[in-house]
Specification:
The protein is built from 7 helices and no strands. It has helices at 3-11, 40-48, 67-95, 104-129, 148-161, 163-180, 182-207. The longest helix is centred in the middle third of the chain and has 29 residues, at 67-95.
Length: 212
């Protein structure tokens, strides 16, 4: 086997831990000095730390991966956030019809905080950009009741009465579902990283100017 093949195989070999003890924290670097907070390795470590300990065994293969694999993982992670967000919003907005496909009641009952956070986040963003009929000079109407039940009622009333709030609630709901799926998205991104890193390498080879 060539040296490159040996290095590739070693990059994905799970780390062995003595006495079958779980490591205190997942580290993507083995040097005594951690990387810069803005480096790809540091960003990947922050993302992987969001997984519960029971799921971190699925991400250990990324521990000793080369930087090209770390970059591929970060790109996949962003894609698994953007694609479901846009896809779910399109499903809710164009295919929901009378609203039967919009699981707002269920999401507000189980994940009301995420839905309310998504609605607030995108309402502010739409006001700043003045999209979908929102204007910067419109005063926001904060609710004094912070309970999930009040947030659900407020969201449903806005969704039924105002088309621009229908859009922001649908985007907020898609954001909440995407956020809930974070562990699945991380594991799927790690699983697809070797394949996607090879795709990126072939793409760079195609667009790189040929040496004369």
């Amino acid at each position: 086997m060539s040296n490159a093949g040996v290095r590739f195989a070693q990059a994905w070999r799970p780390a062995l831990h003595q006495n079958n003890r779980r490591p205190p924290a997942l580290r993507l670097y083995s040097t005594p000095h951690p990387p810069s907070p803005k480096s790809p390795v540091s960003r990947a470590e922050r993302i992987l730390s969001r997984l519960p300990p029971s799921m971190q065994k699925y991400t250990r293969q990324l521990k000793d991966a080369p930087v090209s694999h770390i970059v591929a993982f970060l790109i996949l992670h962003e894609l698994t956030a953007i694609v479901p967000l846009i896809g779910l919003f399109g499903l809710f907005h164009y295919a929901a019809g009378s609203g039967r496909l919009i699981p707002l009641d269920y999401m507000m009952q189980h994940y009301g905080g995420q839905v309310a956070d998504g609605v607030r986040r995108f309402e502010k963003y739409f006001r700043r950009k003045e999209w979908f009929g929102f204007r910067r000079d419109e005063a926001e109407q904060p609710s004094t009741d912070k309970s999930q039940e009040a947030a659900a009622t407020n969201a449903m009333e806005k969704w039924k009465s105002d088309n621009k709030y229908r859009i922001v609630v649908e985007v907020g709901l898609a954001y909440a579902i995407t956020k809930v799926l974070l562990p699945v998205r991380i594991v799927a991104s790690v699983w697809a990283t070797p394949w996607f890193a090879a795709v990126l390498a072939r793409t760079r080879a195609l667009i790189r100017p040929r040496e004369s």
